[in-house]
């Protein structure tokens, strides 16, 4: 076999040239591949479950809505246009809520909360838990008789903060604990705080005589003739908004909460007086929940089947307690005509605020979820806390007494 001897320096030069050659070819092929990719992507449509969102969300819808007061047709058309922001929630699905909401947004002549029976009821309704079945059968109506009213609650239009507390009829001790502590009606430096409890009718119990007696002593109950159940809390919110826009139209702020929260009312009043800019008029503040998704476990209290709702929830403030501007009350009530009823009340509230172009503002002082046991009475030791949830009547009174002692000795 013939062997050809090549000097080492010649082999080295050849290897360097080959390496440069292969690097050049690789770079050229990469550029050609990228060119082909971008050409293809320019021709293909972009599919997305969420439409593009504006870079700067609307922060104060009152600038648009308040000039429309008294112009019903124009107001409703404007609210319908604003509600189209809810399309961000509408992932492609044949789920019941998504389909109904799509119809509401596609037609200005369609309304929610009309008390009409759905034309196309859910096919698998019988497989749902009973509370959800009842909601779907009766949840589209917000016309219920007001059994107990407080027509003079906000007389003289001097209410700075209205405490609207959701309570079940049988929760007598919870209500009394609130009245005797942080919910006392009074003036804080000339800023008046008023209190109402929101009630329905107790399922399977006749508590009417006790409720009437309680109201005769306290004059702070609002009661409607609907069944007071967990999945009717959305309805309770809607009935309250309808009442507040007529009875307390000048209330500066409203604190919506449960009857098992503890609130540092004076500190909240002080916080609200310090607000500036758009938050002074258009506020939605509390413990913000972001990127939440429905519970799919049928054993959960919050169970929502995929056949009813698909997608994620909007940002919302935890329903245990949040504050919003009273000036938004009539618009929240009206925009709900374009928001399909939903059984989780705080999620539905977030949907309605989203329809107005608003997101909740987080505040570290609002704790609507359980806090560690070692922080048993945090309202006194943690000065930044304004509201904590899940307290029984004894704990509320103990925290109130501890807070008063802390104030007196500070």
From TrEMBL:
It comes from the Eukaryota. Coiled coil: none annotated. It is a single-pass type II membrane protein. One of its GO terms (cellular component) is Golgi membrane. Pathway: Protein modification; protein glycosylation. One of its GO terms (molecular function) is lactosylceramide 1,3-N-acetyl-beta-D-glucosaminyltransferase activity. Its EC number is 2.4.1.-. Keywords: Glycoprotein, Glycosyltransferase, Golgi apparatus, Membrane, Signal-anchor, Transferase, Transmembrane, Transmembrane helix. The keyword Glycoprotein applies. It catalyses: a beta-D-Gal-(1->4)-beta-D-Glc-(1<->1)-Cer(d18:1(4E)) + UDP-N-acetyl-alpha-D-glucosamine = a beta-D-GlcNAc-(1->3)-beta-D-Gal-(1->4)-beta-D-Glc-(1<->1)-Cer(d18:1(4E)) + UDP + H(+); a neolactoside nLc4Cer(d18:1(4E)) + UDP-N-acetyl-alpha-D-glucosamine = a neolactoside IV(3)-beta-GlcNAc-nLc4Cer(d18:1(4E)) + UDP + H(+). GO terms for biological process: poly-N-acetyllactosamine biosynthetic process; protein O-linked glycosylation; sphingolipid biosynthetic process. Belongs to the glycosyltransferase 31 family. Beta-1,3-N-acetylglucosaminyltransferase that plays a key role in the synthesis of lacto- or neolacto-series carbohydrate chains on glycolipids. This is Hexosyltransferase. The gene is LOC108700278.
